[in-house]
Write a structure and sequence with these properties.
Elements lengths: L10 H14 L1 H34 L6 H32 L8 H14 L7 H9 L12 H10 L1 H43 L7 H43 L1
């Protein structure tokens, strides 16, 4: 299975082909990426559990344990490293499926992905094209070296198309994420309603330990599926990058 990357595509075609890539290769993407997604999901679930604990203490007027605050601080850098490794593995998969035979080391792609994490708030700008051009830079003999100035200039020429694909693909992704997270949010609402009932009305009905564990498992599942569907979003932007490169080759 390969990705036909360097091909002219419209706004809608970038998004449709991104979705088709995920649906047609769901098992392959799951096999390659799901272990990374689950690790990130577990770390986020630990953060969620810590956040729930702090909020329950606030509702019940109980002093928060220092260990809970310390745990939250410890998880953040570990989570950052996990996200970097996940992004690095994703782009290594993209490079191989796009036919690039010479690829940088996995750790190099992971470090590069840190830039993408920082640039997330700026993904509505031509920098999104620059980022994908940097990550997908051909390393074969005779390939042109990466130039931030040149890639930014090319991205600016296609700014409207970049914005359109980012907005529409992002809207579809957020809509799907909201649906996937609904079971977990319903469980959290029930949990807090039970705690408030106990504190305010001496309600004896509490969620059992198994219910809390089930809620955390729902959290892991929701995050994992959201990240898996997020491959559609990344692929749409990748195909947009390929479309721009293809147009530049035709112009030259």
């Amino acid at each position: 299975m390969t990705i036909e990357l360097y091909r002219e595509r419209s706004y809608a075609r970038c998004i449709k082909d991104g979705f088709d890539f995920l649906t047609k290769n769901l098992w392959l993407v799951t096999k390659i990426m799901m272990p990374y997604f689950i690790v990130v999901a577990l770390l986020l679930t630990v953060m969620n559990a810590d956040f729930l604990y702090v909020n329950v203490c606030s509702i019940a007027n109980i002093e928060v344990e220092n260990s809970a605050l310390f745990l939250g601080l410890i998880i953040i850098p570990i989570l950052l490293v996990a996200v970097m490794l996940t992004q690095g593995r994703l782009f290594l998969m993209y490079r191989r499926l796009s036919g690039l035979t010479v690829n940088p080391p996995f750790w190099c792609l992971a470090l590069k992905s840190l830039v993408g994490i920082i640039l997330v708030p700026l993904f509505f700008t031509p920098l999104v094209y620059v980022y994908y051009a940097w990550m997908m830079q051909p390393l074969e003999e005779g390939a042109a070296p990466f130039s931030f100035k040149d890639e930014l200039s090319r991205g600016c020429k296609h700014w409207a198309k970049i914005l359109g694909v980012v907005l529409f693909a992002g809207f579809i992704f957020l809509l799907a994420a909201c649906v996937l997270v609904l079971p977990y949010m319903a469980a959290v609402s029930t949990y807090f309603a039970s705690i408030e009932g106990k504190v305010n009305f001496n309600d004896t009905a509490l969620i059992p330990t198994s219910g809390y564990v089930g809620m955390m498992l729902l959290c892991v599942l929701a995050y994992s599926l959201i990240f898996l569907f997020g491959v559609f979003y990344h692929t749409s932007l990748l195909l947009l990058y390929g479309d721009i490169v293809r147009k530049l080759k035709i112009e030259n």
